[in-house]
Amino acid sequence: MPKRAGNVIDLDRVIRSKFVRDLPLVALGCAVAALGVDMFMVPNGLAAGGVTGLATIIAELTRRAGFEFPVGLQTIIMNAVLLLFVVRTGGARYAIQTITGFVLFGFFTDLFAPFVVPLGDGDLMLAALWGGIVSGVGYGLVFRCGVNTGGSDTIAQIISRKTSLPVGSTVMAIDVAVCAASAPVFSVENALYAALSMVLMGYVIDRVVDGSDRRRAAYVISEYHGDIADDVMYEMGRGVTEIAARGVWSGKNRPMLMIILDRREVSLLKTIVAEHDPEAIVFISDITEAFGEGFKELGE
Taking the CB of residue 152, how many other CB atoms lie within 10 A of it? Predict the structure, then answer.
């Protein structure tokens, strides 16, 4: 158990220990992402957004000029420069996690490059699909550990601080701009496939980060809330929270039940509610993670 100072948990100690414990998984994720870049993306001229995409473009231009500028080294240099502009925002912990991510990724990218066999030569669809999948799995493992590899997110933070533009929209704009910038260097076809790979990569990252932790939050409004709550607790084995609610039109006070459950349990909840009150109001939303009793621990 973490030590307490009064009523305050030593969060720094908890996070540091978790960071050290997750380092092997972070390294594995960076290595997998680097393999995706080296096997599919760079050899086929797919600059799928971000700093890595920009480095792919520069590496091709320098190769044509007669010298090599490794992609991994470029990503380390660019991310290090960008980090100087945002390190005050995230503090030392953010800086350490980000540096770890982009250094490991850049190191593995240049380490594997001379040895891996490029795949998908001449088949841009194959390269785009598998490049997005493999890289997405790698990045997803890194992000799942609370670490990041810099890139578009860092640039977006800098722009957002100066212009108040949303970070998410800025990241998307940057990635699209990098894909577009690759068209004159490689081809329009390459740029389009790079964009496809970028979209697929984002989807895979979300699936890896969320994994099996995706849950449903169900809200139930019914006159028979007590009976429904009993069945949910004792038949489904799920906790129930009553939230005070009042109908504006009817003026009646009626508790609203909130239940966090697995996707597989949604149909059972609907059956329970329908048995007690077919006219009950039920709405269900997605949640990406759930912590606490009955779910995973908050420190995981």
Answer: 25
